[in-house]
Specification:
single chain; mainly alpha; flat
Length: 334
């Protein structure tokens, strides 16, 4: 018996009847021989962590564009916090931690430079629109490994696709990611906004703090503990009505005080103008696209290739490309 088979036997014995076992996976788009050591979901986690798209997350905006300071979140640190919150809940509910981790680590692979500002811009200029959760699936199915994709299991791809909106994921592990994503970003965005002087502790409505807690750790503990209690033995991931209402109120507060605050978002228009000009440039000059995107151009059209290229850029790479294409260089005598 291989180590993988032993691990799958442990899953069968230890996990909740509601959990998704790796032995029950719907499989991959391209069948592969099983690994002797790792379960299918463990292999997916490794493939995501070793991907180029995952490494680029460290230079992509979470909320604040290119903040001065080492302690503000990036898309990478957001992803890691989502993973930790989700795994904690999965363990408490006896769900599959490996599946949970793979979905969490892959959920934002398709995010644009400059956060949701970049996403909104691409949604405007890309025929048919753009959504980062769909692009995340495209990254793992089409763009990674020179166009081969990562060939992840169906359950991981489904969890990535369903992590933001629309129909819930088919697995409880996937449903966990949607809630963990919200718990993570609301709370770390509060911490970053406090650090940046955008809001102050006294600004958070008192009734919300009385329900969820007054500190970062208290809020996360309340939200995680409540979800575990409400979801135990249930066929879906839930929250109690009291905590869910407080969380929605906190989200509304963050949109009013941070996500639309001119002090925090004053540079987003510039970032969007920059991405718009890059998009238009490559539309008119598709031969300038890197070789990896020429096959996409041939198979799916120029707009699709340009969108994939720009969506995959990091913040500093997008700035560098803009400067190279549109900012005059100083004249020097050779």
């Amino acid at each position: 018996m291989t180590l993988r088979e032993q691990l799958q036997e442990r899953e069968e014995a230890a996990l909740s009847p509601l959990a998704c076992r790796s032995s029950q996976s719907r499989g991959r788009a391209r069948p592969e021989a099983e690994c002797a050591i790792r379960t299918p979901f463990q292999r997916d986690t490794d493939r995501i962590v070793y991907s180029k798209a995952f490494r680029r997350l460290k230079h992509k905006t979470q909320v604040f564009l290119q903040p001065e300071g080492d302690h503000y979140r990036t898309r990478m640190t957001h992803t890691l916090e989502v993973s930790r919150i989700a795994r904690t809940m999965a363990r408490a509910l006896s769900l599959n931690e490996d599946l949970t981790e793979a979905i969490a680590l892959g959920h934002d692979l398709g995010h644009t430079p400059f956060g949701h500002a970049g996403e909104r811009l691409l949604n405007q200029v890309m025929p048919g629109g753009f959504a980062h959760y769909k692009q995340s699936v495209r990254v793992v199915e089409r763009l990674e490994k020179g166009g081969e994709g990562l060939n992840l299991t169906w359950e991981v791809r489904n969890g990535i696709l369903c992590h933001t909106k629309g129909a819930p994921a088919a697995t409880l592990e996937g449903q966990l990611i949607r809630l963990a994503d919200h718990i993570a970003y609301i709370n770390h965005d509060i911490e970053d906004a406090l650090r940046g002087g955008i809001i102050y502790p006294i600004d958070i409505p008192l009734d919300i703090s009385r329900t969820l807690g007054f500190t970062h750790s208290e809020r996360i503990n309340t939200l995680v503990s409540d979800a575990v209690q409400a979801s135990r033995g249930q066929p879906e991931i839930r929250q109690s009505s009291r905590v869910e209402e407080a969380m929605l109120a906190l989200k509304d507060f963050m949109f009013a005080s941070v996500y639309t605050n001119p002090l925090a978002k004053g540079e987003e228009g510039k970032a969007q103008d920059m991405l718009r000009r890059l998009f238009e440039y490559y539309q008119k000059n598709p031969d300038a696209l890197p070789g990896d995107f020429q096959s996409i151009r041939a198979e799916e059209g120029v707009d699709r290739a340009v969108c994939d290229y720009i969506a995959g850029m990091t913040d500093p790479f997008a700035v560098d490309r803009f400067q190279e294409l549109f900012i005059p260089k100083g004249w020097t005598v050779l």
